[in-house]
Amino acid sequence: MTKDVADTPNYVPSGKGFVDDPARPILVYARTRAAGATIPPHRHPRSQLLWAWQGVLRVTSAGCVWIVPPSHAVWIPGGTLHDVVTETDVEIRNLYVDPSCPIRAEPEGQCSVLLLTPFMRELILRLGGADMRAPFDAPLRRLCAVALDEIEALEEAPLNLPGGQDPRLLRLTRHLRGHPEDPRHLNQLAAIAGASPRTLERLFRRETGLTFRQWRSRLKLLAAIELLSRGQSSTAIAWSLGYRSPSAFVAAFRQHFGRAPQAFLHSWQQGAAGSARIGLPAGE
User: Fold this and answer.
1) Under DSSP, is residue 244 helix (H, G, I), strand (E, B) or coil?
2) Are 90 and 17 in contact (CB under 8 A)?
3) Above 60 in pLDDT, residue 9?
4) Least buried of 73, 210, 221, 258, by fewest C-beta within 10 Å?
């Protein structure tokens, strides 16, 4: 029997995340949001595959930040407290997976950014056009089963920025997330945290698994993705984020993401254009 859980203390962007119904293993929700929109912290029993086929999303959970361009989607396990910010105007397609379908055995509460295959994009679009208010017929159940198999197989991408819990570390990382261009060395930034540079280095290694230098390098690269999505050139991004030169920025981006910034941008624009040509349903 279907049970729609509507009474929850958390802000719920879609009630479909709270539908308990193994007979409907996947539910789809579409929405359009303007740049700067915020979905406050919330959780839902269903796991969520969150995809913006146009635009860039920022998802935060447990002190970690995930940047999600259209070439990727973020996987949010059921019960995970998270919030979402739209970095640009976005067209979102969500798949909500019933808890009766355990897939992607990430650590509890751990989100991940997944590289979408063309096949997975087509599955999302096909599911989005189905009538999910009626009982699922056999073809739709088979389509859901294929989608679940494909989600399980998607490759994780390095688009996360680990956080931490120590208040001293959080003071510094919050400052740098708001000012990724800040050129100061850790010796100069330590006053923001109220801790010595040596203590901060130890906290970065222990709580993020990265050195301070590695953490700040990843922060800049994720900030670069946001700026690319807004149409800025590699040269402008390099200077605005404090790289020595545009070529140094391109080399760092290629080393981390496996392709140059403009090639990365082109790949997700092509994915979005392909989705648009197919014809998506209007946002709900």
Assistant:
1) coil
2) no
3) no
4) 258
- pLDDT at position 268 is 59
Whether 197 has a pLDDT exceeding 70, the answer reads yes
Q: Hey, which residues does 58 pair with through a beta bridge?
A: 67, 85
- Which pLDDT does position 49 carry in this prediction? 96
Does any domain span residue 275?
Answer: no
Q: CA triplet 217, 223, 225: central angle to 5 degrees?
A: 110
Strand runs labelled E in 79-231? 82-86, 90-97, 112-115, 155-156, 160-161
| Inter-axis angle of helices 118-128 and 261-278, nearest 10 | 30
Single-letter residue type at 64: C
Residue 277 lies in a domain: no
Looking at the fold, whether 65 and 143 belong to one and the same domain comes out as yes
Residue 77 belongs to a domain with what CATH number?
A: 2.60.120.280
Cα-based torsion angle of the residue sequence 48, 49, 53, 58 in order, rounded to the nearest 10 degrees? 70
The reported pLDDT for the residue numbered 278 is 38
